[in-house]
Amino acid sequence: MNLDSLGSFQRTHRNGQLRLEHVGQTVRLLGWCKRIRNLGSLVFLDLRDRWGLVQLVANETEVPPALLAKLKAVRGEFVLGAEGLVAEREQKNPNLPTGDIEVRLSDLLILNTAQTAPIPLDESAEANEDQRLKYRFLDLRRESLQRNLVLRSEVANLIRNYFRRNDFVEIETPILGKSTPEGARDYLVPSRVHQGQFYALPQSPQLYKQLLQVAGFERYIQICRCFRDEDLRADRQPEFTQVDVEMSFVRQEDIQAMMEPLLVELAALVGRTVQAPFPRLPYKDAMEWYGSDKPDTRCAVRIQDVTALFAHSEFNLFRAAADSQGQRRVRALFFRGEQAAAYSRKQLDELQDAAKHMGAGGLPYAKWGKDGLASSFKKFLDPAAEAALKAALGVEGEGLAVFAVGTSQQTSKVLGDIRLRLARALGLIDESRFEFLWVVDFPLLEWSEENSRYVACHHPFTGPHPDDLGLLETDPGACRAVAYDIILNGFELGGGSIRVHDAQTQSRLFRAIGLSEEEAREQFGFLLDALAFGAPPHGGIALGLDRLVMLLVGASNIREVIAFPKTAQARCLMTNAPSPVNPRLLKDLRIQIEQAQQWKAGVMFFESVPAEFQAPLTAMRTLTSGAASSTSTLVLDGEVVKVETTRLPGFDGQDG
Ligand code: ASP
Question: Is 173 in the pocket of ligand 1 (CB under 6 A)?
Answer without folding.
Answer: no
